[in-house]
Write a structure and sequence with these properties.
Elements: H1 3-9, E1 18-19, E2 26-27, E3 30-33, H2 51-63, E4 68-70, H3 79-88, E5 98-103, E6 105-106, E7 117-118, H4 122-136, E8 141-146, H5 156-168, E9 172-178, H6 182-189, E10 196-198, H7 212-219, E11 222-225, H8 240-244, H9 260-279, H10 284-293, E12 300-304, H11 308-314, H12 324-337
Parallel strand pairs: 3-4, 3-12, 4-5, 5-8, 8-9, 9-10, 10-11, 11-12
Antiparallel strand pairs: 1-2, 6-7
Helix pairs in contact: 2-3, 2-11, 4-5, 9-10, 9-12
């Protein structure tokens, strides 16, 4: 039985799948990101969330065919992982999506709004893994990622070896790095293959395409990008008025991309995404996500949703193939407005 046939029998929409690097996992081009559903009462929250709606969004994404969820222990200080568990507990095991999570950020229970500490101590990583397994209600994590480079003095070789050991013990299926640069990837690769990299990547934030993406292609490292809609800026629904009303407990209210000339340029780029999406009979959000998926070497894009309707707004990205003319138009808008930084067009797709 093919994967598509199995999905149909399970009552799910069949979406295309891509192999995640050298792993044995085939993932849909879009995965559900669970950062925002962690809630707003922590240092980098998205404001208050409705847990029932978050659970409904996760279940709806699975019904639409999405076969992986990306979360992290730090999201809502454990709350996001708990919401993922609650969303999946009533879904038959054979139909559940893959679950990816992260380690390396520790928080202060006495001060939820304090910035987390970047910790690479192998003992801490093991402690965090056990806590995530419990919160998620699983026996093994499909992909375990180091969230950020450690700042506690632990060399990358030590924390990467800790992840390699967890993989060898069968506690995790695959291991990856998030927010690491080429030098750090090289250091890790010398002692054990880097299965995946998770970088920020959007038509606004494009630096990753200049160095880390080519490295991943050369080393057959799977890539799952986050914030392909740049935290809502490229959805076609975000406005300057909306930016002014972001609550204080929404991290975007303090981000430079959401103010002044940068915001103006970003919203012009969003208009182009809307025009491209309209030509394909879909949304600006789907076009923005499809733009990241058009780059050779990108395995999948992580997309957030806090209610079912938001999933429907971007699910088309999984099957949307932008034409060269679309990519050229987006690149021209980037060059004209000066939005973001980094390469504007895949090198493999010259003008």
């Amino acid at each position: 039985m093919s994967l598509c046939q199995a999905d149909k029998q399970a009552g799910k929409t069949a979406l295309p799948k891509r192999r995640l690097g050298r792993t044995d996992m085939l993932i849909t081009p879009v995965g559900l990101g669970a950062w925002a559903i962690g809630g707003g009462d922590w240092a980098v929250g998205w404001g208050s969330q409705d847990d029932k709606q978050s659970i409904a969004a996760i279940r709806h994404a699975v019904e639409r065919g999405v076969n992986w969820i990306d979360t992290a222990a730090i999201y809502g200080l454990g709350h996001s992982e708990e919401i993922v568990r609650r969303a999946l507990m009533d879904i038959p095991v054979s139909q559940r999506p893959l679950v990816f999570t992260k380690c390396g950020l520790r928080w202060d229970e006495a001060d939820r709004m304090a910035p987390p500490h970047n910790v690479g101590d192998p003992k801490s990583i093991r402690f965090e893994l056990e806590a995530s397994l419990k919160r998620l209600g699983v026996d093994r994590i499909d992909l375990y990622q180091m969230h950020w480079p450690a700042r506690d003095g632990t060399p990358i070789e030590e924390y990467w070896q800790a992840l390699l050991d967890l993989k060898a013990e069968g506690k995790v299926r695959a291991i990856g790095l998030s927010n690491h640069n080429v030098a750090q990837l090289e250091a890790a690769e010398k002692i054990g293959h880097v299965d995946t990299l998770q970088p920020p990547f959007s038509a606004i934030r494009r630096e990753f395409a200049a160095a880390e993406l080519p490295w991943c292609v050369r080393h057959d490292t799977g890539v799952i990008v986050y914030s392909p809609m740049q935290a809502g800026l490229l959805t076609g629904a975000f406005t300057a008025a909306r930016a002014k009303t972001l609550p204080a407990n929404d991290w975007r209210s303090r981000n430079a991309e959401f103010t002044g000339d940068k915001l103006k340029a970003n919203l012009e780029l969003a208009e182009t995404m809307q025009a491209v999406g309209k030509r394909h009979g879909t949304s600006a959000a789907a076009a923005a996500i499809a733009w990241t998926l058009a780059w050779p070497g990108v395995s999948g894009a992580i997309v957030g949703a806090r209610e079912p309707a938001q999933v429907d707004g971007w699910i088309d990205a999984a099957t949307l193939h932008l034409r060269q003319a679309d990519l050229d138009e987006i690149a021209a808008t980037i060059e004209r407005t000066g939005a973001g930084s980094g390469p504007a067009l895949p090198a493999e797709m010259p003008r």
